[in-house]
Amino acid sequence: MQLPHDPSLDSTRAFFSEGYDWIGNRCRALGTDVFRARILLRPVVCMMGEEAARRFYDGESFTRAGAMPQTTLRQLQDKGSVQTLDGAAHRHRKQLFLSMMVGDPAEALADAFERRWHAELPQWRNQEEVRMHEAFGRLLCGAACDWLGVPLEGDALDRRTHEMLAMIDGAGSVGTRAWRGLALRRRAERWARAVVTQVRDGTRTVGEDTPIARLAGFRDLDGGLLDLRTAGVELLNIVRPTVAVARFLCFATLALHQEPGAAAFVADREPARLQAFAQEVRRFYPFFPVIGGRVRTPFRFREHEFGQGDWVMLGLHATNHDPRLWEAPEAFRPERFLDREPGAFALIPQGAGAHADDHRCPGEWITLALLRRLVPLLLAAEYRLPPQDLTIPHDRFPTLPRSELRLSFA
Ligand code: HEM
């Protein structure tokens, strides 16, 4: 069957200007949840919603190979990373990440974050204003490295933080931001490879069960250690996305100030409420607009035949705001998660489905633990928001309040 078609000859401009809202807008206009379009002059099928996510993240139908622009791939997961693997090789490598991150380890990373928050707070009080996106990024970079077993301080921590922030900032763009991200990535890769080399040859002593020891000693399906380049890539695939959580921390701070009832909702610091608040932050605020895949195993969906190699984009933000799934999707309502575990294909800011079998993010436990931890720290700190532009542009990926969130601590 012919799917509805976006009437534009090429939708690249609309995709970049409507941004996060493009897929949802087109689906509404065409009365569908799957449609065809052309982006960058290439045919693509776009889809949104729970059923589409179930299809996209079914563990076998899609590969990420050839589904993302090269500059995005290089700055995010990169060649040779777990995200570029399929089938048995992917499941095996994924276990490395899952074994590090599920449950208590996520709390340990949040503990490291909290220690660094307390260490930094007196210095923030001495500044007129603190740019929180960068400040959160530095705390998270330090916490991730403490947790991994490769602590960093001073200039080295500043350098790594800037490299990670630049890669995240450059991933969704072309031009100067992308080139800056790529240049700083090369410097970060040298650091990551040096760390793995030192751990392997014993010139850096690390605890036996630290995440870095596991990564350096991890053996792929063929029984061999990861080659040095790939091991460095996977090390960056832990530090960089942890620093990316800075955006969610900014959004959480914003929610406490802007969203009616949000601060009262978490005021008693009750764990179930902190968790519900953290989930709503991940649902409500924009992060990655879409995830792209290419069909690996042909299938039929909505009476349309998807052939091998077809390019498909699943709307992550559109699904998180799908009115079929969420009552009043444009309202910030943490209570919606109080008596409800979000479905594996409904709340999908970090991918969908089964973590072990598909590309769903292994960092979700860490992301949630950090968001839960931030709230009591903010509630206990005395600060104010100076006047600033807090609008969140929807045509920039990943986005951020225009002011990058500035706070004054008392
Ligand atoms: C800001 C918070 C985060 C967001 C929005 C996010 C988003 C995502 C998304 C959408 C995917 C799925 C990609 C796909 O389907 O191809 C993913 C995968 C991944 N994420 Fe995250 N992530 C975040 C935090 C983290 C953290 C904290 C870590 C590690 C500490 C992490 C590590 C990874 C890895 C290694 C993958 C690849 C998994 C695979 O291919 O099986 N992410 N992330």
How is this structure best described in words?
With 410 residues, the protein is an alpha+beta fold. The protein has a single domain (12-409), classed as Cytochrome P450 (Cytochrome p450), CATH 1.10.630. The protein is 50% helix and 10% strand. The protein has helices at 12-18, 22-30, 50-56, 70-75, 87-101, 104-125, 132-148, 154-171, 176-201, 211-217, 228-258, 262-266, 271-284, 316-320, 364-380; strands spanning 34-39, 42-47, 62-63, 130-131, 290-295, 299-301, 304-306, 311-315, 383-384, 406-409. A five-stranded mixed beta sheet has the order 1-2-8-5-3, sandwiched between helices. A three-stranded antiparallel beta sheet has the order 4-10-9. Helix 7 (132-148) packs across helix 8, helix 7 (132-148) crosses helix 11 (228-258) and helix 8 packs across helix 11 (228-258). It is globular. The model has no long low-confidence stretch (mean pLDDT 95). It binds protoporphyrin IX containing FE (HEM). Residues 64, 77, 82-83, 94, 97, 237-238, 241-242, 244-245, 248, 287-288, 291, 349-351, 359, 361-363, 366-367 line the site of protoporphyrin IX containing FE.
